[in-house]
Design brief:
By secondary structure, the protein is α+β, with helices and mostly antiparallel strands. It is built from 5 helices and 19 strands. A 5-stranded antiparallel sheet has the order 13-17-16-15-14, with no helix packed on it. A 3-stranded mixed sheet has the order 18-1-19. A 3-stranded antiparallel sheet has the order 2-12-9, with no helix packed on it. About 15% of the residues are buried. About 5% of the residues have low confidence.
């Protein structure tokens, strides 16, 4: 066999081998495609059917408190709290009484001297006119009358001054019996029996906090200022929410607002009062202020957990009639408990995914199951 013939035979065998290999691969691929397993069933998700509801919207402010206190007893306005050592104050009153009595006696004496001086002038004037008495005697009498008038004025001023001193001493004696200026709960006594009391002491004897009514201060943003204008304050229903979520039955009343917005925080301070007849709310207790701002008719609400947010955009997953999930952009408004009011993007009758959001994405077919929370929310 020649070299040329051997080469032809080699390439013929190689070509047959390659064709055989390609046919084998094609058959293997076709077999695998023929035995491909069936796709899994659509995942099960929890959905709810939306319906319009009548709800009240609220704003909560953190609630922020004015002072702390130590638990004590309740006291009434005017009740005696402390009695100081009365002896020095009683001595001052007695001394002031004595000074006033002496000044009163001095004025009587001065008035008697003035009366004599006037009588001397009346007696000497006709005698001097008839040259029956020297002019010098009349001049002396006139001078004595003038001095007597001045002495009476001075004595009267002294009496007035001593009356003021006596009144001051009597006030000090009254202040030595310290009474509660307001009704409330008294704190711990910061000065024990036997302690020295001074007018300039920086430490108070005790503190009293009023419990009925209680004052609450909270901050609102600039955007909410129209809600708290004087014309609207009376129509706002204000409630306290305690740390356990309970709401006392008594509603509050807005008393006033500060006269300017805090430029650092962009907020305005609002002050409100609440009746607290049973003393169930105490100063220092954590509470929130809830302001009822509006009534919404047939509002569409969705659970907060159903709303997804990405780069400032909110969306929910809706389930169409063919059970295909679609992403729907929404705009939420006020919060009602654990739900958002949807302002744009949804309507009554839409079905949204509530649970199982991590298992699906837009375009996925699902098996919807009505959420129990949906049933409770819609009264079914």
């Amino acid at each position: 066999m020649t070299a040329t013939t051997r080469r032809r035979t080699y390439w013929t065998v190689a070509g047959i081998f390659l064709v055989t290999l390609a046919i084998g691969l094609l058959a293997t691929t076709h077999g695998k495609a023929a035995t491909k397993p069936a796709p899994p069933p659509p995942p099960e998700v929890s959905v709810m059917h939306l319906a319009g509801e009548d709800v009240a919207t609220y704003r909560e402010y953190p609630y922020v408190d004015r002072r702390t206190f130590d638990i004590g007893s309740d006291v009434r306005a005017g009740q005696v709290l402390y009695v100081l050592d009365l002896r020095p104050y009683e001595a001052e009153v007695e001394r002031a009484h004595g000074a006033l009595a002496q000044a009163t006696a001095d004025i009587v004496q001065a008035e008697a001297a003035l009366l004599k001086a006037r009588q001397d002038v009346e007696r000497l004037e006709p005698l001097v006119k008839e040259e029956a008495a020297p002019r010098q005697d009349l001049d002396n009498a006139l001078a004595a009358r003038q001095a007597g008038e001045a002495a009476v004025v001075a004595r009267k001023a002294t009496v007035d001054a001593n009356r003021a001193i006596l009144r001051s001493a009597e006030l000090n004696l009254e202040y030595a019996t310290i009474r509660a200026p307001i009704s409330g709960r008294v704190g711990e006594s910061l000065l024990q029996v036997g302690g020295l009391v001074t007018k300039t002491s920086p430490q108070p004897l005790t503190t009293i906090v009023p419990l009925d009514p209680v004052w609450v201060r909270f901050q609102v943003s600039e955007a909410e200022l129209p809600l708290f204008q004087p014309g609207r304050r009376g129509s706002l229903a204000i409630e306290l929410v305690l740390s356990d979520g309970s709401v006392p039955a008594v509603q509050g009343h807005i008393e006033n607002t500060l006269n300017g917005v805090n430029t650092k925080t962009g907020t305005l301070e609002v002050q409100a009062t609440f009746r607290n007849q049973d003393h169930s709310v105490l100063p220092g207790q954590f509470v929130r202020v809830r302001v009822r701002t509006a009534e919404r008719r047939q509002a569409v609400l969705v659970p907060q957990r159903a709303v997804q947010e990405l780069q400032g955009q909110q969306s929910v997953l809706t389930v169409a009639a063919d059970n295909i999930v679609q992403t729907r952009a929404v705009v939420t408004g006020d919060r009602v408990d654990q739900r958002w009011i949807v302002e744009q993007g949804l309507k009554a009758g839409d079905v949204i995914v509530v649970d199982g959001l991590q298992k699906v994405r837009s375009g996925t077919r699902v098996t919807p199951r009505v959420s129990s929370a949906s049933t409770r929310a819609n009264g079914r």
